[in-house]
Write a structure and sequence with these properties.
Elements (H helix, E strand, L loop, with lengths): L14 E7 L5 H12 L4 E4 L7 E8 L6 H4 L4 E9 L1 E3 L8 E4 L7 H9 L3 E5 L8 E2 L2 E2 H6 L9 E16 L2 E10 L5 H11 L4 E11 L2 E2 L6 H6 L4 E2 H8 L2 E3 L2 H8 L4 E2 L8 E4 L5 E8 L2 E7 L3
Parallel strand pairs: 3-12, 15-17
Antiparallel strand pairs: 1-3, 1-14, 2-3, 4-11, 4-12, 5-6, 7-10, 8-9, 10-11, 12-13, 16-19, 17-18, 18-19
C-alpha cells in the first residue's frame, strides 16, 4: 500500500527523481505514484518504458518537468534478452506467438553478422504496438482493434549491441545483450529484425534500462524506497549533469532571466545550461546565428 505524502505545506523542491521502475507498471502508473509521494500534480517522465520493462525512468518534479523534453533525447542503455525461434504480435513476451521456427542450428557467427547489420546508423521500422500515432490514433490501439498497421522506417543509431551469452534450449536460442542507442530506438524491433535476418523470428523476453544519459541505474531508487524517504536531485545538479555548462555574469544573468539573448560562445549544437554567479540554474539556451537564445527559463 502506497503511503501518500501530505499535500499540506510547501511544494516539493524542483528536481529529478531517478526511479527504478518495476515490471507490471506503465510509465503513467509511476507518475501517478510519484504524485502521491511528492504531494504535487506537477510530475512528468522522460522516455516511456513498457510495462514489461524495468529500470531507469527519469521523473521530473515541479519546474524540472520542463527539462524532460530535452532529457528524452539523450542516449539510453539497456540490458535485454532476445529469444530466437519465436515471433510475437508485440515483438515481446507479452504478445501472442505468431510463428515458431526451430533456431537450434543458428550459429554465433550468424548472430554476430545479423547484429552487425543492426549497429550504427540504421533505418528502423517501429513495433506495430508502439505509441506512435497513425492518423491521430495510437498504433497499438489500431492493432488491438484488428487493423493492419504499416509504420514508416525512421533513422536511429545503435552505438553498442553486444552479446554476453548465447543459451540453447530445445528449438529456441536466448541471447543476453547490452544495447546503447539513440532516443526513439525500439529494442523490441531490434529483436524482431535480428530474428527476421536469421529466418527464425525473434522477440524480447526481458528488458531493463540501465542508463538515461548521465543518470545510471546505480542512482535509481524504487518506489518503496521513495515512499519511505522522498528526495530529489536538485534541478541545478540535474542540469549540470545532463548539459554543457555556461556560467554568466550578474548582468548576463538578469538578461537571461527575462528571456534575453547572450552572445554565442561556440558551443556544440544542443541545449546549454546557464548558471548565475551564485551557481543557481537559470535557463537552457541554444546557440544560433551568433546568439545564445533561451529555449527554457527556470527563474521568475
Amino acid at each position: 500500500m502506497s503511503k501518500p505524502r501530505r499535500n499540506a505545506g510547501p511544494p516539493p523542491p524542483d528536481g529529478l527523481v531517478i526511479v527504478d521502475k518495476p515490471a507490471g507498471l506503465t510509465s503513467h502508473d509511476v507518475v501517478g505514484r510519484m504524485r502521491r509521494i511528492a504531494g504535487t500534480r506537477r510530475v512528468g517522465h522522460a522516455g516511456t518504458l513498457d510495462p514489461m520493462a524495468t529500470g531507469v525512468l527519469v521523473i521530473g518534479i515541479e519546474k524540472a518537468t520542463r527539462l524532460l523534453g530535452h532529457l528524452a533525447l539523450t542516449e539510453k542503455t539497456y540490458e535485454a534478452t532476445i529469444r530466437l525461434g519465436q515471433a510475437t504480435v508485440t515483438d515481446d513476451a507479452e504478445g501472442e506467438v505468431t510463428a515458431t521456427t526451430p533456431a537450434g542450428e543458428v550459429t554465433r557467427e550468424a548472430v554476430d553478422a545479423g547484429i552487425a547489420g543492426l549497429t550504427g546508423a540504421i533505418m528502423q521500422v517501429p513495433s506495430k504496438v508502439s505509441a506512435i500515432k497513425v492518423d491521430g490514433k495510437r498504433s497499438y490501439a489500431r492493432v488491438r482493434e484488428g487493423e493492419e498497421v504499416e509504420l514508416a522506417a525512421r533513422p536511429v543509431t545503435v552505438s553498442r549491441f553486444d552479446v554476453h551469452e548465447m543459451r540453447r534450449d530445445a528449438d529456441v536460442v536466448d541471447l543476453d545483450v547490452t544495447v546503447t542507442c539513440s532516443s526513439g530506438t525500439y529494442i523490441r524491433a531490434l529483436a524482431r529484425d535480428l530474428g527476421t535476418h536469421l529466418d527464425v523470428g525473434g522477440h524480447l523476453t526481458m528488458l531493463r534500462r540501465t542508463a538515461v544519459g548521465p543518470y545510471p541505474i546505480e542512482g535509481a531508487r524504487t518506489l518503496e524506497q521513495l515512499e519511505e524517504s522522498f528526495s530529489v536531485l536538485p534541478i541545478a545538479d540535474a542540469a549540470a549533469a545532463a548539459f554543457p555548462r555556461r556560467d554568466v555574469t550578474a548582468d548576463e544573468a538578469r538578461l537571461v532571466a527575462h528571456g534575453g539573448r547572450l552572445k554565442a560562445e561556440g558551443a556544440a549544437a544542443g541545449p546549454v545550461a546557464v548558471f548565475d554567479p551564485d551557481g543557481a540554474f537559470l535557463a537552457l539556451v541554444e546557440e544560433t546565428q551568433g546568439q545564445a537564445k533561451p529555449i527554457a527559463v527556470f527563474v521568475g
